[in-house]
Amino acid sequence: MTGMKANLTSICSSSTQAEIRAFLGNFISTLELSESEQNQIILAVDEAVANAIIHGNDNDPNRSITIDIDINEKRIAIELSDIGLFDEVVEDEKKEKQLSQVIKDKQKGGLGLKLIYSIMDVVCFYTKERKSYCLLVKMLA
Amino acid sequence: MEIRQVEDGGILIIELEGQLDAHSSIHLDKVIQEAMQKGTSNIIVCFTALSYISSAGLGVFVSHLDSLKGMKGQFVFYDMPGHIYSVFEILGLHKVVAIVQDIEEAKRLLRDDGNEG
After folding, report:
1. Contact, A138 vs A41, CB < 8 A?
2. Is residue B42 over pLDDT 90?
């Protein structure tokens, strides 16, 4: 299989997430993955996109994020850029909170990061030249 | 996404169709909240036609679990596609919510749990 690369820039509105999932799904579907595996990768990216749109960019349609996809036979790498501000301490707390506590606290949020970290093999948030990024990598069997 | 609802003997039955994400989960939350405000504590949800669920959709259900329990009720989900069930498994939600095959089994579960008091 030869490598594939693509990118998409989207305004920061949760109404665009379905389109982003469809865009990603078109590439993921070319790989030899089960429906569940494909869905999980799309889900992890969707969660990172939602995080960037809602928390990082305040659902501001005047801002945009870019999604770069790089696929080869060994891994899928997705980099989101312009993801806005992220607080590592808060994100770590959300990731580590037990499901029982989330239920007890009647929380609607807090599950997205758990999904991202459970599904992807590499999750990395970083800043470079005043821009913030999220890199997600899934190794292929 | 489409949400259809019908009341059957005090039980709210919700059918989901499409994709449940951050955008569409707001509507589902409103449906559940309104039902609970009217005193409905047993809610059956049909997943047959649901093609996608994100943490926002899962969060709607999770946020009401404890309250329904306090009302002596619960959610029962049925006919869940495999790729949706695998997401529940990742979070451990398959252990805290009843997930069954069909609506008859869902109603039977609620009846049996109601009899146990």
Report:
1. yes
2. yes
